[in-house]
Structure formats: C-alpha cells, structure tokens
Specification:
Elements: E1 4-11, E2 20-25, E3 30-35, E4 37-40, E5 46-49, E6 51-55, E7 73-77, E8 86-93, E9 104-108, E10 114-119, E11 126-132, E12 140-145, E13 163-167, E14 170-176, E15 184-191, E16 212-214, E17 220-228, H1 232-265, E18 275-277, E19 283-285, H2 340-350, H3 365-404, H4 426-430, H5 433-459, H6 474-495, H7 502-524, H8 532-552, H9 557-579, H10 586-590, H11 598-616, H12 621-644, H13 649-674, H14 681-701, H15 712-716, H16 730-751
Parallel strand pairs: 5-16
Antiparallel strand pairs: 1-6, 1-8, 2-3, 2-7, 4-5, 9-17, 10-15, 11-14, 11-17, 12-13, 12-15, 18-19
Helix pairs in contact: 1-5, 3-6, 5-6, 5-16, 6-7, 6-16, 7-8, 7-13, 9-12, 12-13, 14-16
C-alpha cells in the first residue's frame, strides 16, 4: 500500500501583488504554487482562489527508510511589506490507491484537484477507467499519467503528459499494461474554471476589473471505477465471428448456384424452333420467333422484312460473333446511333402513349454494353484516387491522438473501444469487413451471370432474339465496387471519427444510392440512361455540396437558401427529362433567330401544351404520378432543410438519396405487378430479407453512441457498453446488418426481372 500526503493551505489575503508562495520539497521533486491561486479563462478573465489543496507525489519506500517515513520540507514566503495570515494543514490520505472493481467517491474543484494511484493486478493486461458524475457541470478533465513527479494536476498543465479526456457526466479511458513499464499509473481529476470546453456557456467579453472572480464555487462529486477490459481471446472470437458470419453468405450462394445448375444449367438440349434465353442462368422457352413483325405490334419489334415500323437487322452472316464484346477503339459512344433512321424516328417512338422495351433497346448491344462498362472502370479510378489520401489522413489523425494523448480529437464510444496496435477502436474497423466481403461476393455473382450470358450468346445468335431485359452488367460491377469501397472508407472514418472526416463515411453511400437508381432506370430504358461521365460528374457535384454544407451549413442562412433552390430546380429539371424521356430540350425552341417573333408564340405553346394541358390531362399518367410524389418529397426535404438547418448536412443529403431510391423502387415493383408480371421466389426472398435487414439495421443506427455535432464531453454522455460478444457495440451491429441489407438490396435489383427472360421485348412495358 502506497501512502500519500495532501497539503491544504488557506490565506485571507486578496493582494495579487504580494501573493503567498508555497514550495514543497520532496525526495524526488519540488512542487510550488501561490495563494491566491489564479486561473485564466477566455477574454483574459481571471478566477482567484484563496483556498488550495494539493496531493504530493508519493515516494516509494527504500531500504534505508521505513515504509511510513517521508521527509517533506514546506517553505512559505511572501514579498509583502506587511504580515499575511495563512493556514497550513498536512494530512495523510487513507484511500490513495484505487482497487479493481471497487467504486470510489470523492470531490474536486479547480483549486483542489485530485489524483490516485492504480497498480495492474497480475492477471490483468488492460483496464477501463469509468468516471461518472450526477452533474454535467462544472467541466472536468480526466487524465492518465505515468508515475513521474511532478504530477500535472492543474488546468493549465494537465494536458502536458499522458492521456486525457474532457468530461461532463461520463468518461472512459482504456489503459493497457504494455504502455506503462512500471505497471502502475496515476488517474488525475482536474476541474476547469470555465465550462465552454464541455459545451457550457461561453463567458462574455468584459473589460476592466469586472472580469476578476474570487473563490467561485465549482465543486464536483465524482465516482471512479476501474474494471478489467476484455482478454485477447475475445479479440480472436470477434474476428472469427466477423469472418465466419459473412463466409456463410458465400456458402449460401454456392448452394443456390449448385441447385440452380442442377435445375436449369443441365438442360442443354433445346427443341427445334425454340430458343434458350439466359439471364440469371439458363432458362428455356418454346416461344417461336416470328419472321416478321406481328400485326399491331409496337415499334422496335423484330422485322426481318425491313418494315418501317422496326429496326432492320442485318443477317447473321454479316454481323460479328454473338458473344464478342469487342473493346475496339473504333466503337465509341458517338457510334451508338449508327443508323440514320434512328435519329429521325426515335422522337416519334418515344411519343407513343404505350412504350415497350423494344422501343428503348434499339441500339447495338455491344456498344451499349461497353458504354455501361465505363461505370465500372471509372469507379475503380475514383476509388483509388479517393481512398489513398483518405487513408493517409486518418493515419495522421491516429498518430496525433497517440502522440498527444488528446482523446477529444476522436469521437469513439469509449465504453466499447477496444484498441489493437496503434488503433484506438479496432472493433469499429473490424465490423466493416462485411461490406468488403459481401461486395466481393456480389461481384462474383454478377460475374457468373455475365459468363452464363456470354455462353448462351455463343450457343445461339442472341441478336436475332428479342427476349427479356437487355443484359448489361457494367452498373452491377460498379455497385459491387462501391459496396467494397464503402467498407474501406467507413473503416477509415472510424479510425478517428470526427466532424472533419465524416464525409469519408458517406461519399460512397451517395454513389451506391445513385447507382441503384440508375440501374433501376436502365432496366427498361437501356438506350437513354445517363452516361458514366455525366453520372459521376453529378456525384461529384453532390459531394462538393456536402463539403460546403459541412463548412457553411451550421448557421449560414444564405447557404440553405441557395441549396434549397438548387435542390428544387434540379428536381424539376430531372422530372422533365424523365417524363419526356430526354426529348424535352429548351434549346429546341430557343434555336430560332431572335428577330423571328414566332419564338415567343412557340414558347407560349410549349408552356401551354407541356405544362398546363399535360398537368390537367397527362399523356403518361403513371410517370406523372411518380414525378408528382417525388417532387413533393424533395420539396419537403428542401423546406425542412431551410427551416431547421440540420447540423449533420451529410446525413441530410444521404436521406434525400435514400428516400428517392425507395420511392422509385416501390413505384417500379407496383408497376411491375400492375403489368401482370411475376415475382419469382428468389427476388421475393431478397425483398423480404432486405426489408427485415434494413428494419433491424436502422434500429441499431438510431441508437446514438456518440455525436460529433456536440463537444467531445457531451458526446461521451451517449457512450454505452458493448452488446455483442463483449466486443461490438450498437454501431458495429449496424455495420453488420447494413452490409447484409445492401447486399440483399443489390440482389433485388439483379433478380427482380428474371421472370421476363422468356418474354418478348415488344411485350414488356416501359415505366
């Protein structure tokens, strides 16, 4: 048992020109202070205390002295030309050494800090120091320092040594035995003279003598408990759990693929006059192919006789092999409309009241497929250039935390932050492994479908077949890469989560939501979907707005006014493009000379027919309903942002993306069912699994464990213990479940239209 001595002094003098100086000399150090003791705050405010109490640095017993002997010299002096009364009291501390799993209560104030000793038990390698208080204020600081004299236990020097946190009602610091060669440390408690560092009120700027405060009562009752942390075996169990949980998805996928192979892929014999259509694998159909367009069919139906209603297809002998997706530089995007009549009749086709998939899948499949592959290659380039500086930055953050000991830099859940190596919260990083593993699994599933599709094309000339949704896998590959990168960047964010790097965790969430909407739209609009360049440019604008929102979105009304206007105008512009399927162009009626007065007449007619008349009697009722609901949702978001100005701007934008995606997906499924299309068992299972996973994931997401919108001390009030294996907290469970939810969401988009693989495209409606 180590003994410690505490010195209490008091002086009635308020003369700041002639303070009383106290110097305590010990075996290994000197401690000094003055009375009145002066603390400085904001705006040169001073807080003076006439009553001071300090704990002297304890001395270890030596062979020359008995354990209870400590030689201490106390020197008292003042330069005052008059006598000053003071009081000196030296006492022995009875409970200086803290014990494991035993709570200890005490009080502290700015002029009377406290610190205690803790020694690691033999079988404990890591402990968590839990400190709680019933009152949020006064603001305090908890510090862990090595056994070195002097101990830094005042407001102006507590940050000079060791690890420290600011605190209101709760603080938690994980300490490892390996960081202290002596296997012991001091736990220091300091009360700050002002509360602004913990989120309290900021003192006003007052000049003159009014800014001096004497003997302000700022006493705080604290309770400290030191408990053992988890053992190394728990780390191993947590890693096995994380990897095995998601390896089970691989096993399930292998089982499904094997069953699918047994049931369909073995059927290689196709009856005469029938075709083999492959989407999710191999599906047979006995529908004969008519040599000419059936009477009454829509534009885009197969017409080998060259009728004007459809696109004339060249003979199989004159076209490349069916399975060759050449990457020749000759085939550029400018070659999409290679036939002159396409440019002239595509506007006529898109004005039909009832559109079918054959009307919007008229372009060369190889060139369109290569167009969508650009999504894949571009997102890989973006990922590399985005991730490398992010990794470098978060490594710097973690290094600063480890070197300075300032645990207010990162917003962890300190009650469940398990360090490993240089990482302060390894559990928050490990829980992101699901995004990477399931993203890679999704890439493998897409690759299998792609290979089976190519194999089917080699068996039969797919260009003469007009069945099912056109198979373009570029967007699916991009979605898989985006899911993997979300795991990487989320892990980077959780290396040191704070206000400055939150966009790392959300950037690829924007891209995932955007890619899903593009894929859903591309399914029945393959010829008119956005190019990769325009899509990624739009994502870049969104991310730029997110960064501006983080910087200016707190209190600047002008930013929210501009952003809301951009949001509403973008919604209207996108709605116009969707409603008219890219045919509405302002330049069409602005291309006339300004001297031609017909331009005004044309503008009035366009506004009347396309706005007033269309809104009262819309030609495309389903599209109009979707766009009206979508605009109402987006305008509501814009009004909400303008009125309430949420501080978490990145999550606000993400909410806009997710709501639009869910709205479009619900519309798509409803329209699919209205069109008498079926939901096969696999997509139905994926839809149910997606809904269940998202519901469970969102429950844990809203269990707020920290918040960088507040001060670090206020954020720690939300900290909670681990809930899974004693290693993972609520947010880690959110990572696990959200990864599975995103994976099933992707599978929904991948398998949703498998029932159409045996349906002619001129029978598949567009919506």
């Amino acid at each position: 048992q180590v003994d410690a001595v505490r010195v209490y002094v008091n002086s009635s003098s308020e003369n700041l020109r002639y303070p009383v100086l106290f110097v305590v000399r010990q075996q290994k150090g000197v401690l000094s202070w003055q009375v009145p003791l002066i603390f400085r705050g904001l705006y040169q405010r001073t807080y003076n205390y006439q009553e001071v109490s300090r704990t002297l640095c304890p001395s270890e017993p030596t062979p020359e002295t008995r354990p209870s002997d400590q030689i201490i010299f106390v020197d008292i002096a003042s330069m005052a030309p008059f006598s000053i009364a003071y009081e000196l009291l030296v006492t022995r501390l009875e409970n200086f050494q803290l014990e494991t799993n035993k709570a200890f209560n005490f009080t502290a104030s700015p002029s009377q800090p406290q610190y205690f000793l803790y020694k690691f038990p033999q079988d404990v390698d890591s402990v968590i120091i839990n400190v709680v208080s019933d009152a949020a204020y006064p603001c305090s600081v908890v510090s862990v320092q090595d056994i070195v004299c002097p101990v830094y236990d005042l407001d102006h020097n507590v940050e000079f040594n060791g690890v420290y946190q600011s605190m209101t009602k709760q603080a938690a610091i994980t300490v490892q035995r390996k960081d202290f060669p002596g296997e012991q440390f001091f736990v220091v408690f300091v009360i700050k003279p002002e509360d602004y560092a913990c989120g309290g009120s900021v003192p006003s700027s007052i000049h003159g003598n009014v800014n001096r405060t004497w003997n302000l009562q700022r006493t705080k009752n604290l309770q400290v408990t030191i408990v053992p942390s988890i053992k190394k075996s728990v780390y191993v169990q947590a890693m096995f759990f994380s990897f095995l949980s998601f390896l089970s998805f691989y096993l399930g996928s292998v089982v499904v693929a094997f069953v699918h192979y047994i049931s369909t892929d073995m059927k290689l014999t196709v009856p005469p006059g029938s075709v083999s259509i492959v989407g999710s694998g191999m599906m047979t159909s006995s529908h004969p192919i008519s040599a000419s367009t059936p009477e009454g069919s829509s534009y885009g139906a197969i017409d080998e006789s060259g009728s004007s209603g459809g696109r004339q297809l060249s003979s199989p002998e004159c076209r490349p092999p069916a399975g060759s997706d050449t990457d020749s530089s000759v085939e550029e995007e400018s070659d999409f409309d290679t036939m002159p009549e396409i440019e002239s009749d595509k506007n006529i086709i898109r004005t039909k009241v009832f559109l079918y998939l054959s009307d919007l899948s008229r372009k060369d499949r190889r060139i369109v497929s290569k167009k969508y592959k650009i999504y894949f290659w571009n997102i890989i380039t973006i990922a590399v250039f985005y991730a490398l500086p992010v990794i470098q930055l978060v490594i710097t953050y973690q290094t600063v935390v480890n070197v300075t000991g300032n645990q207010d830099i990162c917003y962890y859940n300190f009650l469940c932050a398990h360090p490993l190596g240089v990482l302060s919260a390894f559990n928050n990083i490990l829980s992101n492994v699901g995004h990477m593993m399931l993203g890679f699994l999704f890439l493998l599933i897409v690759l299998r479908r792609d290979i089976l599709h190519r194999r089917a094309m080699e068996m039969k000339d797919i260009y003469t077949l007009d069945y099912g949704i056109p198979k373009h896998f570029g967007l699916f590959y991009a979605m898989g890469i985006a899911l993997m990168m979300e795991g990487v960047l989320s892990a980077c964010y959780h290396v040191c989560p704070n206000y400055s790097n939150f966009q790392f965790d959300t950037s690829f969430m924007y891209m995932i939501a955007g890619l899903c909407m593009l894929k859903l739209y591309q399914t029945r609009h393959p010829d008119i979907n956005a190019s990769a360049y325009s899509a990624y440019a739009s994502f870049a604008v969104v991310i730029s707005l997110a960064v501006l929102g983080v910087v200016f979105g707190k209190n600047d009304v002008w930013f929210w006014v501009i952003f809301s206007m951009i949001h509403v105008l973008a919604s209207l512009a996108l709605s116009t493009q969707i409603y008219y399927m890219g045919r509405f162009k302002i330049g069409d009626f602005l291309s006339f000379p300004l001297t031609d007065m017909g331009i005004f007449r044309r503008a009035v007619m366009v506004l009347y027919t396309d706005c007033i008349q269309q809104c009262s009697r819309p030609m495309y009722m389903d599209r109009m309903v979707l766009l009206i609901v979508g605009n109402l949702v987006n305008w509501s978001f814009a009004i909400f942002g303008l009125v309430y100005r949420p501080r978490d701007f990145a999550s606000y934008i993400l909410g806009i993306f997710i709501c639009n995606l869910l709205l479009y997906l619900a519309f798509y499924i409803i329209m699919k069912l209205r069109s008498s299309e079926k939901l096969l068992p696999i997509p139905m299972f994926c839809i149910v699994a997606t809904a269940v996973m998202w519901a469970a994931a969102l429950y844990f997401f809203f269990q707020t464990l920290s918040s960088w919108e507040e001060t670090p001390a206020e954020s720690r009030e939300k900290n909670r213990p681990c809930i899974l294996l004693g290693f993972f907290d609520d947010h880690d469970v959110w990572h696990f479940l959200s990864a599975a939810a995103l994976f099933f969401s992707f599978l929904v988009l991948l398998t949703l239209d498998d029932d159409l693989d045996t349906v002619r495209r001129d029978k598949i409606p567009v919506f």
